[in-house]
Design a protein that fits this description.
The protein is an alpha/beta fold. The chain contains 23 helices and twelve strands. Strands 2, 5, 6, 7, 9, 10, 11 and 12 form an eight-stranded mixed sheet that branches. A two-stranded antiparallel ribbon has the order 1-8. Strand 6 (about 195-205) and strand 7 form a beta hairpin. Helix 2 packs antiparallel against helix 4 (about 130-140) and helix 21 (about 455-475) runs antiparallel to helix 23 (about 495-500). It starts with a helix and ends with a helix. The mean pLDDT is about 90.
């Protein structure tokens, strides 16, 4: 009997081996069949370039506060960034504006984001405050495990052996399946509601910000409206090395562009031909945009644009909003609206969820390993570069408007000069930043929260309080609320948020 049982066991083992071998052969055949597949095309060509078509600022409904622009920018940082941004938006949603019958969150005109912040920005643009519960539920999921399974399961491993499925695809699928459900920029256009969404990635070749706007896509002769939100969000959060870049096809030059009155667009050429010593960032960006517009006809042909995490170029998502506020070669040009007297007040809220975790390297003499060096080259550099950025940006903006006022006076335009001086005084700049936490232990605890798509429930609970607390304690925020005819709501305190993060896990 024993020998018979052993024989049965050997037969069962052989069957298992045979089944495993069959699966391996099947997967190999699948890989062979798919090996001829082309790389995926992420963006579609556009038929007509026109200001009244596509996802553009002027094709969305105007807000009720016609003389006020409310801008929110959000940094990267995985789920930490997404939750902190959600908390700030919830705090803004508590500010009633009786004159308009809406909340401050309803009146956000522009929301610009990077990486983790793009998850919240994208969903808020599509669903408004009504989407907060769904978004919070998503952010509480174990995103790392979900994305890892989508990347490492046997079928995915085979697909990853082909060019048709890249390392960024599991992240796109996760965002789309669990949150955005096939929503696209056309979804936002159909709703015609603001805020105007700007998701920011980075051109990995040029090292410049790449905002997902139709104006930028015009240069590629491409239609932003047909792009899924999950794809753009994933590009904004495509962390280098771990994920592959998102590659866009440049259709320029194309038939739609030949119908344009001037190509490349004058606004791009004017920026490229500007005085580099006066504004180097504008000139460099203009040169890149002219190259996009020329496409295959450029001196160095740009047939494809490879996009990575936006934090590489601008981890606060402020580059494009700053461009809207300070130049005429943007869409919309808030600078021109100020000159015309249409915009008299600006409320700018910058959410910075940067990490500054303590490092064990400070206590060791041994040479740091490869992973530690990669972290220093990417994570640490991105996070540290944003420290104090809100103050620098505020100073730059005030200086820009003061200089503009001087220029207008020299041109004999005293009324326009007055408007630029007034807008400087009527701009509230609010910074939500962990560095504003006075208690050193609590500040370090929030800086220590990991940059990951999976956080502990306690971390999320603390972040949901801290965003509102920091918003309410910024001295500029009550001024902004009062100037808009609103009333400061009761918001959590920083002490409450510190306590929530330090409470023992349940």
């Amino acid at each position: 009997m024993a020998s018979l049982a052993a024989l049965r066991e050997r037969i069962a083992q052989q069957k298992s081996i045979a089944i495993l071998a069959a699966i391996i052969v099947l997967l190999a055949l699948m890989a062979l069949a798919l090996s001829s597949c082309a790389y995926p095309t992420r963006n579609a060509e556009i038929g007509t370039l026109a200001p009244d078509r596509g996802y553009r600022w002027n094709n969305l409904k105007a807000g009720d506060m016609s003389d006020t622009v409310v801008i929110v920018t959000a940094s990267g940082g995985g789920t930490r960034a997404a939750v902190l941004e959600l908390s700030v938006l919830e705090g803004m949603n508590k500010v009633d504006l009786p004159q308009y019958g809406k909340t401050l969150a309803d009146e956000i005109d522009v929301i610009s984001s990077v990486s983790g912040g793009s998850v919240t920005a994208g969903y808020f643009a599509a669903h408004g405050a009504a989407g907060f519960p769904t978004l919070e539920k998503f952010l509480r999921r174990d995103g790392i495990a979900a994305i890892a399974w989508r990347m490492l399961n046997p079928v995915a491993l085979v697909k990853l052996m082909t060019p048709s499925y890249e390392r960024i695809d599991p992240q796109i699928e996760y965002f789309d399946d669990k949150l955005f459900h096939q929503e696209s920029f056309q979804t936002l256009l159909d709703g015609r509601r603001k805020p105007y969404l700007i998701l920011n990635a980075a051109d990995m070749v040029e090292g410049t910000p790449f905002p997902f706007t139709q104006r930028k896509f015009d240069l590629l002769c491409s239609d932003l409206a047909r792009m899924k939100l999950a794809t753009a969000v994933a590009a904004s959060a495509a962390f280098p090395v771990a994920l592959s870049p998102l590659t866009l096809k440049n259709y320029s030059p194309c038939q739609a562009e030949t119908a344009a009155p001037h190509w490349p667009p004058l606004w791009a050429e004017n920026a490229a031909d500007g005085d580099w010593n006066d504004n180097p960032e504008r000139v460099v960006q203009g040169r890149v945009e002219v190259a996009y517009a020329l496409g295959g006809k450029a001196a160095h042909p740009k047939d494809y644009i490879h996009l990575l995490d936006g934090g590489i170029a601008d981890n606060l998502g402020v580059a494009e909003p700053y461009r809207l506020l300070t130049t005429g070669d943007a869409e919309p040009s808030i600078l021109n609206a100020i000159a015309a007297g249409k915009v008299r007040k600006i409320v700018f809220i910058m959410i910075n969820s940067r990490s500054a975790a303590l490092s064990k390297l400070d206590k060791q003499q041994a040479t740091p390993g490869m992973l530690a060096m990669l972290n220093g080259a990417v994570n640490a550099a991105i996070d540290r570069s944003t420290s104090g950025a809100s103050h620098r940006l505020k100073t730059l903006l005030e200086t820009e408007y003061a200089n503009q006022a001087t220029v207008e006076e020299q041109l004999g335009q005293p009324e326009i000069a007055r408007r630029f001086r007034e807008i400087g005084a009527n701009t509230q700049f609010i910074a939500v930043d962990f560095d504003a936490i006075a208690d050193p232990g609590c500040r370090q605890a929030y800086h220590d929260i990991a940059t990951s798509w999976t956080l502990k429930p306690r971390d999320i609970d603390g972040l949901l309080l801290m965003g509102q607390a920091l918003l309410g304690t910024d001295p500029e925020f009550p001024k902004a609320v009062t100037s808009l005819g609103g009333k400061m709501p009761p918001l959590p305190s920083v002490a409450q948020a510190c306590k929530a993060l330090n409470e023992p896990a349940k």
